[in-house]
TrEMBL record:
Residues annotated as signal peptide: 1-20
Catalytic activity of the protein: [protein]-peptidylproline (omega=180) = [protein]-peptidylproline (omega=0)
Keyword Transferase: no
InterPro entries given in the database record: PrsA_foldase (IPR050245), Trigger_fact/SurA_dom_sf (IPR027304)
Sorted UniProt keywords: Isomerase, Rotamase, Signal
E.C. numbers: 5.2.1.8
Pfam family, one: SurA_N_3
Name by which UniProt lists this protein: peptidylprolyl isomerase
Top EC class of this enzyme: isomerase
Xref: Gene3D superfamilies: Porin chaperone SurA, peptide-binding domain (1.10.4030.10)
Domain of life (superkingdom): Bacteria
Amino acid sequence: MSSNKWLVAIAVAGAVTLTACGGATEAGSAGQTQQASPSASGQAQDPAAGQQEMPKPDLNGIPDVVAEVNGTKISKEDFTTAYEAQFQQMAMQSQMMGQEVDQAKLKKQTAEGIVGTELLIQEAGKRDLTASDKETDKALDEIVKSNQLKSTDEFMAEMKKQGMDEAKVTEELKNQVMVEKLIAEEAGDTKPTDKELKAAYDEAKKQQEAMAKQGGQAAEMPSFEEAKPQLEEQVKSQKEGEIVQKLAKDLRAKADVKINV
């Protein structure tokens, strides 16, 4: 399920985000994994290519306990893993646009995202949703494949570089499986209707035509039948994302949450 790859996916991909409540949704649309990117350590680009040095994430002043969610503490370590990945993605985007990352805002969004994820994990636990070893292994295989890595060992090595040992990775994968079960339970049947697929297709076609009018290079639009499988995944993910956001918002309204960044 592409919209629900949590901290593990974020850490390895250095990419996207957590679906959560409120401000967390501004940080992204919950964790669609991408191929692993270069480190966010501020490594300089080739000056001859005319590229700027990548900025570094500012982790000064991050408290040992970044947030508390119904008594569960979110550690500085967990926050740092997620924030560095978020920052890397935002820094690349901002650099292309000639802007700087608003790190204060991004820190708050990242913290909100982690809080939202923790609320979903807690709710999954309350509903006695569990993750078997087989299900956890399957989730691991999917992430390895989606990041175009050669093996599980290569994945674990990448995670270790980012401060997550095998036990921590396994814990996060189990949480991921539990949350995916929670979303499936909450969402029910999200199979798109032909009417919804046609509307999504027409919208994509309209956007492509607008791009062409503005002089942009737009690829030729496939037929509706050719695009149908991708449209089904897109509409299904959108429906599930909306359900996740509503659930997380409802859980947040009833939760005891304190954020310290």
